[in-house]
Specification:
Elements lengths: L7 H6 L20 H10 L2 H5 L2 H14 L5 E2 L6 H8 L1 E4 L3 E4 L6 H6 L5 H4 L1 H14 L5 E6 L1 H10 L7 H9 L1 H25 L3 E6 L7 H18 L3 E2 L2 E2 L2 E5 L6 H4 L6 E3 L6 H8 L4 E3 L11 H15 L5 E2 L12 H15 L5
Parallel strand pairs: 1-4, 4-5, 5-8, 8-9, 9-10, 10-11
Antiparallel strand pairs: 2-3, 6-7
């Protein structure tokens, strides 16, 4: 086992002392980087890139060559599980992900298989192994999945949605069908993340992109309950150390206290929640990750630094903070601005960790 040279990300997630606040960026391997665009062009299209372990490894490492990041995140897509269930994922130019088959009825749900991860998602597991080997202990590797609710929204809507008409109709009119779908997805996500952990992922994040579209009671019943089910089933120790789990519900700041009881080690925050207020609300139960508005990266360097300083000040002294954006980095951001952001976090946070 290769010794981890920089483990401050893992230590911060477990609220252990660190020398400065660790930082990584959601979508840090992505279209804002010219080298990523070149690799994607060589692959032919996005899914071909995801399904090629060597190229997925290449783009995962690209941001680490530019920036002093404290973690790498597996390059993949949240919709690999529905694709492995036979729904036929494809990407329409200008419209995002789409599925050839849509799940709308009880019979549709009953017909869905729980994927055999080693067989149906072998390219993801191979990419985890490839990346972990290439990192050679440089920084930890994050594995991830979409949450059951978020995966279900794409499967029922057939792609992205603004009003969630079809999935909310299923949720309110046929809740038993909705629960059957979510239970099947929770089982699949648990198996998927555990295989990532066994292949070398040293932390995992569950992306609940659309949980914030729900009312409070519906969020607890149809989103958080199934994420908790996943957390309960995860491998929590591997290679002699804890494997932290992060839950990230976009627009979920109103439910932090309940999320903190989920069993996860950390909660991701978007930019609509003040991180100092969040820390007061959850106490020492979980670490917090976030939460600068990605649009700040369009600003001049001094404005980026001042925003980093404000978030650090809001969180205050001590460990338990992983700095990140409040959502994925935008494709039109200047790569130099991302570098200003990363360097500012390390430089300005050191005084908070005496």
């Amino acid at each position: 086992m290769v010794e981890l040279k920089n483990d401050r990300f893992l230590r911060a997630l477990l609220r252990e002392p660190v020398d400065c606040t660790p930082v990584w960026m959601m979508r840090q391997a992505g279209r804002y980087l010219p080298e990523y665009r070149e690799t994607r062009a060589r692959a032919g299209d996005f899914m071909s890139l995801c399904m090629n372990p060597k190229l997925a490894c290449e783009v995962t490492l690209q941001p680490l060559e530019r920036y002093d990041l404290d973690a790498a995140i597996l390059f993949s897509d949240i919709l690999t599980i529905p694709d492995a269930m036979g729904l036929g994922l494809y990407f329409e130019a200008g419209e995002g992900p789409r599925f050839k088959k849509i799940v709308r009825t009880a019979d549709d749900v009953a017909a869905l298989p729980v994927p055999d991860v080693k067989r149906d998602l072998d390219y993801v597991i191979a990419a985890v192994r490839e990346i972990r080997s290439a990192l050679a202990g440089r920084v930890p590797l994050i594995g991830f999945s979409g949450s059951p609710w978020t995966l279900a929204t794409y499967m029922v809507e057939g792609g992205s949605s603004k009003d969630f008409r079809h999935i909310k109709e299923m949720m309110y009119a046929r809740p038993e069908v909705m629960h059957e779908l979510l239970a099947k997805l929770a089982d699949a996500v648990t198996l998927y993340l555990n295989e990532q952990i066994l292949a070398g992922a040293q932390a995992v994040q569950i992306f609940d992109t659309w949980g914030g579209a729900l009312s409070g009671p519906m969020y607890l019943e149809f989103s958080l309950a199934y994420m908790k089910r996943i957390v309960d089933g995860l491998i929590r120790e591997n290679e002699g150390r804890r494997v932290p789990c992060i839950l990230f519900t976009k627009n979920g700041g109103q439910w932090l206290e309940t999320m903190a009881d989920s069993g996860a080690d950390a909660l991701g925050l978007d930019w609509t929640t003040d991180i100092g207020d969040a820390r007061r609300r959850v106490g020492d139960r979980v670490a917090l990750q976030g939460n600068m508005d990605p649009s700040v990266l369009y600003a001049p360097a001094d404005r980026i630094r001042s925003e980093v300083a404000a978030i650090l000040q809001s969180f205050g002294p001590g460990t338990g903070h992983v700095f990140n954006l409040g959502h994925g980095i935008h494709q039109f951001v200047d790569p130099e601005s991302a570098g200003v952001f990363v360097d500012a976090v390390h430089e300005l946070s050191a005084s908070y960790h005496d």
